[in-house]
């Protein structure tokens, strides 16, 4: 297929993924690991 005019779409998709991950699920994993595990394991 030759798709013309949508060269920006992959870049926009990656930017949207990075924004949504950094504002939602990314920091959540760090917070949960610090709350669930004991202090010796949380630093690993």
Structural overview:
- The chain is built from two helices and no strands.
- With 44 residues, it is mainly α.
- The chain has one domain.
Please outline the major beta sheet. none
What is the mean predicted local confidence, pLDDT?
82
Radius of gyration: 18 Å
Helical content band: over 70%
Estimated structural class: mainly alpha
Order of helices and strands: HH
Uncertain spans, ≥5 residues at pLDDT below 50?
none
Report strand %. Answer: under 5%
What coarse outline follows from CA principal-axis ratios?
rod-shaped
- How far apart the termini lie comes to 47 Å
Total beta strand runs: 0
Q: How large is the count of helical segments?
A: 2
How many domains? The number is 1
InterPro entries: MFS_trans_sf (IPR036259)
Organism: Bracon brevicornis
Protein name: Major facilitator superfamily (MFS) profile domain-containing protein
Comma- or semicolon-separated keywords:
73% helix, MFS_trans_sf, 44 residues, single chain, 2 helices, rod-shaped, mainly alpha, Major facilitator superfamily (MFS) profile domain-containing protein
Give the structure's gist in a few sentences.
The protein has 2 helices and no strands. The protein has 44 residues and is mostly helical. It is rod-shaped, with a radius of gyration of 18 Å.
Write the layout of secondary structure elements.
Layout: H1 9-36, H2 39-42
Organism: Bracon brevicornis
InterPro entries: MFS_trans_sf
Protein name: Major facilitator superfamily (MFS) profile domain-containing protein
């Amino acid at each position: 297929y030759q798709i013309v005019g949508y060269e920006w779409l992959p870049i926009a998709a990656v930017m949207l993924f990075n924004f949504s991950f950094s504002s939602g699920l990314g920091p959540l994993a760090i917070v949960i690991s610090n709350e669930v595990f004991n202090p010796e394991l949380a630093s690993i």
